[in-house]
Amino acid sequence: MTTTTQSKEKAEPVAAPSEISLRDWFATHALGFGFDWTNVHETGGYSEAAQVAYEIADAMLAERDKP
Fold first, then answer.
1. Where does the source fall among the domains of life (predicted)?
2. Three-class secondary structure assignment of 6-66
3. Is the pLDDT reported for residue 45 higher than 60?
């Protein structure tokens, strides 16, 4: 799988590591979307963050499989 990153000069392809599943890759990237990280270390919310990330990843995979 390949994605792109934006730099000031041009977009450069970045490959996802082959050792992880697409679900894991989506979950990793989902961690950056809208999750409030300000108190997660104080509240022990890491499990919640992981759960939400995988829920988002599962939704992304379901959308991907639609015709």
1. Bacteria
2. CCCCCCEEEECCCCCCHHHHHHHHHCCCCCCCCCHHHHCCHHHHHHHHHHHHHHHHHHHHC
3. yes
